[in-house]
Amino acid sequence: MIAALARSGTDVHLQHADISLDFQNVLGQLLKRAQQAGSARNDIQVTDITAMLFGIMRTLENNDDAGLSERVLSVLCEGLRNREVAGG
């Protein structure tokens, strides 16, 4: 995901610097808890999620599709699920 954003011309490192440290810390804690509970994939890192969120935000900018944000966030959340626990 990070490579795809970089190829699209997005300065991923600059974008990541703009996220508050508090947000990253809270996101990291939530991710760790979900991974420990077996709900989230163990191969996901906070940087993966922030890269995906930036991609989603960029996609949603100036988009007239009212249902797009709900569909994209649903796909993101589904992709974070631990497949072994989710049954597939």
TrEMBL record:
Instruction: Domain (Transcriptional regulator SbtR-like C-terminal): give its ranges.
Output: 3-81
Q: Which SUPFAM superfamilies match?
A: Tetracyclin repressor-like, C-terminal domain
List the protein's name. Answer: Transcriptional regulator SbtR-like C-terminal domain-containing protein
Q: Which organism is it from?
A: Cohnella rhizosphaerae
Traced from the root, the source organism's taxonomic lineage reads: Bacteria, Bacillati, Bacillota, Bacilli, Bacillales
